[in-house]
Design goal:
5-stranded antiparallel sheet, single chain, disordered N terminus
Length: about 475
């Protein structure tokens, strides 16, 4: 073999070693389409039960988990449950125009319709069989539990998925359309006159005085506990952001100004809820006099850095949606305060004590302490700071700049290739547990292999994003 022949052979081997996904964008797009369909088909055909989903599955699908173990007659509403998967199908449908994905999304929407409570919203789980505490469903089935919840995005996620499915079906599915409208009507009736929302509701809320937030004038460590904290004004677990996104989507999809009005009212509450100097942040829970109060035994009245980041981001969103500058006015003072709270590792405490501003924690017996090492592991006592990013968004919004565009196909390629590479032959993305915190806090041993609805939703989302921006091969 001469040198020229040898060179040609080497070049041929190099070409053969290059996978179609790496050769050029059209081939990568074709592979992304194939992988998306295979993964979605597996999840729809094998993981679904009654059209819905749970958080996690054993690899062989014989075990299911949400908040604890789940039976085949249980599906979960709270993310990353049924709405998370339904939204992934909707993303895929929009990116490919393949009827399979829209049909799959409709299945999840119909499961959510089944579990809608008479009070208009949803709770964490939908039971298709008997259970100790079954929702009082609008379809006449179920039990007596009629408490609609905004906790952990439960009702918000269900409504978002229903609204998107309703729109994708051109508003022609009567059951889905009516459930979305019924739920939105109930959500608006659960908004207090000052713009706040409770954690849960069973019907329209009562009118309360509209006043500014203030510090407790009593010993908040021992006083001010309320039994029904869930009925009061709450920002816990980023409620403001998820409700705002729901109202924005409702306004965008149904073109009704009442949803924008409700969004503005929410923004007005966030302005009222900002605490006075020297701690101009926000708290998780307020009573009707706008004094911060206890929620759960490990959620004391205190300045919160975690939920306050969500509040700041929500105020920026409301400004961008309305053009009203008043929603930006609380931000500079809050950012100046919180930047002083960021620790050397880039973390912030969940709680800061009133007046002293010391990071506040609980010990194993749920007694207040300043010692972070004593805190139980089930709660996020420290969180990563996003205040630098929020500062950039604030400056952009203040200067009238449009938010950054979506990522290009080129920017997504490496992530798409990883997702393709990590899918197995059956269409599964398998996660190996390594001690990280998971929603629902399942008791998995290190090394346990499982399927995650969160991973499925994120991967399908990236593939769909890539397919959407590369629909024109010349881009």
């Amino acid at each position: 073999m001469n040198t020229r022949q040898r060179t040609r052979e080497i070049l041929l081997l190099c070409l053969l070693a290059t996978t179609p996904a790496e050769a050029n964008e059209p081939d990568l797009r074709k592979e992304a389409l194939r992988v998306l369909k295979k993964a979605a088909s597996f999840y729809h055909d094998k993981a679904s039960s009654h059209g819905g989903y749970v958080y996690y599955y054993s690899v062989d699908l014989t075990q299911r988990w949400g908040e604890g173990r789940a039976s085949l007659d249980m599906i979960f509403v709270q993310p990353p449950g049924t709405p998370t998967v339904g939204n992934a199908y909707l993303d895929a449908s929009a990116a490919t125009d393949d009827k399979f994905y829209l049909d799959a999304a409709r299945d999840t929407a119909e499961a959510l319709v089944y579990g809608q409570l008479e009070s208009g919203g949803w709770t964490q789980v939908i039971h298709f069989g008997p259970a100790k505490q079954v929702g009082k469903y609008r379809n006449g089935r179920g039990g007596k539990w009629n408490v609609s919840s905004l906790d952990d995005g439960q009702t918000q996620a269900a409504l978002m998925s229903l609204m998107r499915t309703d729109q994708a079906l051109n508003f022609k599915n009567p059951a889905i359309h009516e459930a979305a409208e019924y739920g939105l009507k109930a959500l608006l009736k659960a908004q207090f006159p000052n713009g706040a929302f409770p954690q849960v509701w069973t019907g329209p809320v009562a009118a309360k005085p509209v006043v500014k937030a203030k510090f407790p004038d009593y010993d908040w460590r021992t006083e001010g506990r309320v039994k029904n904290y869930w009925d009061y004004y709450t920002l816990n677990d980023n409620l403001a952001g998820t409700v705002a996104e729901t109202l924005l989507a409702a306004h965008r999809i149904y073109k009704d100004e009442k949803y924008l009005t409700a969004l503005k009212k929410l923004g007005d509450f966030l302005i009222l809820a900002q605490m006075p100097d020297p701690q101009p942040g926000w708290c998780q829970q307020y009573n009707y006099d706008m004094v911060p109060v206890w929620a759960r035994k490990f959620e004391p009245p205190a300045i919160t850095a975690w939920e306050s980041q969500d509040v700041l981001e929500t105020l920026i969103k409301i400004h961008l949606a309305t053009g009203e500058k008043k929603y930006l006015e609380p931000i500079p003072k809050a950012l100046e305060y919180y930047q002083k709270c960021v620790q050397a590792d880039g973390k912030v405490a969940r709680y800061y004590e009133f007046k002293s501003n010391k990071p506040l924690f609980m010990d194993a017996k749920y007694q207040l302490t300043y010692d972070a090492s004593a805190a139980p592991i089930h709660y996020g006592w420290k969180q990563t700071s996003r205040f630098d990013e929020i500062e950039k968004r604030y400056q952009a919004a203040k200067n009238g700049k449009v938010p950054a565009r979506s990522r290009s196909g080129k920017e997504l390629e490496d992530e798409v290739r990883r997702i393709i590479r990590e899918m197995d032959q059956e269409g599964r993305w398998i996660t190996t547990y390594a001690g990280e915190g998971l929603v629902g806090q399942p008791k998995f041993a290190n090394g346990f292999r499982f399927l995650s609805s969160d991973v499925f939703g994120r991967n399908v989302g990236v593939l769909s994003e890539y397919l959407a921006v590369t629909v024109n091969p010349t881009r």
